[in-house]
Specification:
Helix content: 25-40%
Strand order of the largest sheet: 3-4-7-10-11-12-13
Strand content: 15-25%
CATH class: Alpha Beta
CATH architecture: Alpha-Beta Barrel
Number of domains: 1
Largest sheet: 7 strands, parallel
Shape: globular
CATH topology: TIM Barrel
Order of helices and strands: EEEHEEEHEEEHEHEHEHEHHHH
């Protein structure tokens, strides 16, 4: 598939709360792995040039070595790179971040559970991004129930929303019943879970349920699948490779197209540090899979 002139607009749009975003976005986790700050900044700017207006980040997306630099100081965080690349921000740009986990250079990754800890992370995101208000804040849940009830943690973010520090709220790494646990506290505009053509397909019904409730479903690791933080493997399943051959595209483009075919409310946030892969990801938004393709990928 030629990628010339194919932008994020090819994937269509979704209304996230009161903000219109293109369904093909950009995930910023991987940009901190590039020791060349200039390349990371250029990649973010190129994403916006290609029509991306939905960028996913988190308080805990961090360069382990802290070797990146912006100006006179080290740039450990993806949020700092986003600010360096894009501030002053385009008016239509929506930056979604996550709180609930944090990073301390001395102690490593920690879970934020109390209202005070969550407020600290929100303020950290505001400071590093250079914003007065965060567009979307997703509460990232751990694998267990947590020492502090979900309603209390989500309620703390709802208070910050009421105070004007947050525009919209979402949940990440969440089970279906947990949406009901917070239903009366504040609107949930999106769910971010691990999901892909060959990963966590038991969530198919949850994906559909989110669409019925008008909630965006935003899969992470849609490209990496079970590879998770290690990134996308060159090896794809035979079903993915067969569809890719039929359309003359890459397996990764098939994975992204399959993601978008799961519903108009499903938003893709592929991450990459490679400009060529970035363009290929945008082009995947123009790939139409046939009913037979989708059946073979089930």
């Amino acid at each position: 598939m030629p990628t010339d002139e194919i932008t994020a607009a090819a994937a269509g749009t979704w209304t996230l709360g009161d903000r219109t975003v293109r369904r093909m976005g950009f995930g910023s986790m991987r940009i901190t792995a590039n020791p060349d700050t200039g390349r990371a900044v250029a990649l973010l700017r190129r994403a916006v040039e290609l029509g991306v207006n939905h960028i996913d980040t988190a308080a805990f997306y961090v360069s382990p070595g802290g070797t990146l630099r912006v100006g006179d100081g080290p740039a450990r965080y993806a949020t700092e790179l986003i600010r360096a690349a894009l501030a002053p921000y385009p008016q239509d740009l929506v930056i979604a971040t996550k709180v609930g986990f944090g990073y301390d250079p001395e102690t490593g990754f920690t879970e934020a559970l109390t209202p005070a800890q969550l407020r600290d992370q929100v303020e950290e995101n505001l400071r590093r991004l250079g914003r007065d208000q965060l567009d979307v804040v997703n509460l990232r849940l751990g694998r267990g129930p947590g020492a502090v009830p979900l309603a209390d943690r989500f309620g703390a973010l709802a208070d910050l929303r009421a105070a004007g520090l947050i525009r919209h709220l979402g949940l990440s790494n969440v089970r279906p019943e947990q949406l009901d646990d917070v239903a009366g506290i504040a609107p949930v505009v999106c769910v971010q879970n691990n999901y892909g053509v060959d990963a966590y397909r038991e969530q198919d019904a949850f994906v559909r349920a989110c669409g019925e409730r008008g909630i965006a479903y935003v899969p992470f690791f849609a490209l990496a699948g079970t590879g998770r933080e290690a990134g996308a493997s060159a090896a794809q399943s035979e079903a993915v490779e067969a569809v890719a051959r039929a359309h003359g595209v890459t397996g990764h483009q098939v994975r992204l197209a399959w993601t978008l075919h799961q519903g108009a409310h499903v938003l893709a946030i592929p991450g990459t540090a490679d400009p060529t892969h970035l363009e290929q990801n945008m082009a995947a938004g123009a790939l139409t899979l046939t009913p037979e393709d989708l059946k073979n990928l089930t």
